[in-house]
Amino acid sequence: MAFVPTLSQRLLTLLQFTRLALVFTAISNGWAAMLLQAKATAAPLEPAYCVAMTIVSIGLYTFGMTLNDLIDRRRDRQIASHRPLPSGRISVRTAHGICVLLGLFAVGGGVWMAMLHRGQWISLIVLLWTMGLIAFYDFAGKYLVATGLLSLGLIRFFHSTIAAPTLAVPWHAIVLLLHVTILSTICYGLEGKRPRLTRGHVATVSLGLMLVVGVLISVLAERVRLTAVPWRIALWWTPGLLYVGAAIATFTAVAITIRVQTPDRRRAGRTIMLYGLLWLIVYDASFVLGYVGWKWALVVAALLPVSMLCVQLTRWWSQLIELAGKPQYQRAR
Predict the structure, then answer these.
(1) Taking Cα atoms as reference points, which of 163, 179, 151 lies closest to residue 279?
(2) Per-residue confidence at 234, pLDDT binned at 50, 70, 90?
(3) What's the CATH fold of domain 12-311?
């Protein structure tokens, strides 16, 4: 008798395929950028714009995750046969359809954002550029090690600039860029991924980060010169950044503690990576606390327990379905 998946199994497969439990980190990045931009420009925060940015964040993140699994499906048969595609829980045709729909979902949100901004299409252009970076990473970047690691940081950087293309508070996007790139590099080495991480790769990533940050600082310095406004005001260098500094120091301590207390390097790498992705929400809340106010910071911070709960619920759900499955018997020899 053919196996017919239940509604619960189908929903779990969809959640695992899109990595929906961690989509709140992308939503948080978008919300924080939007709040910082609104504060810097003294513009009212439109509910429709918030919804549009949320659509963009969900669409971009899940598009990247599903495209990655589609490209890796043959390799996953060897090393991760439990995933939705190699296990056969979702067909390749259905997976392609979901991926395309999610991409269109993101673009639709971007078009809506442009319309709300009276035809200013810069956000949509940044969105399309970010989608291009995601596709480049999934198709080629991740096999080039250093280039792929830099691409991951740049994807987060440009995603956060969709809602704030003028970089009114540039430090937010820069911190996300540095955190994701450094985190991905460390965890790549700990997990022993292939191709192996070498000193040359680390040096290339370091030089690449310095180059990108250097270009950004040069652009910001030119903006200060043209506006003839004191740099502390033009670049919003305020005591609010102390909250962000505290968040960086805290995560560094957490990551070191995990590594010291976890003898298995691969397990330590996976754990640090998970905590590091969730910590993006902490950075977002820290920026909002320092620049916007504690009430909005609480709204952003609330996404952290929601995301953690979704991660745990997905794990429990998977275990329950596995336990509830029909027992399989082997013929005695």
Answers:
(1) 179
(2) low
(3) Tetracycline Repressor; domain 2 (1.10.357)
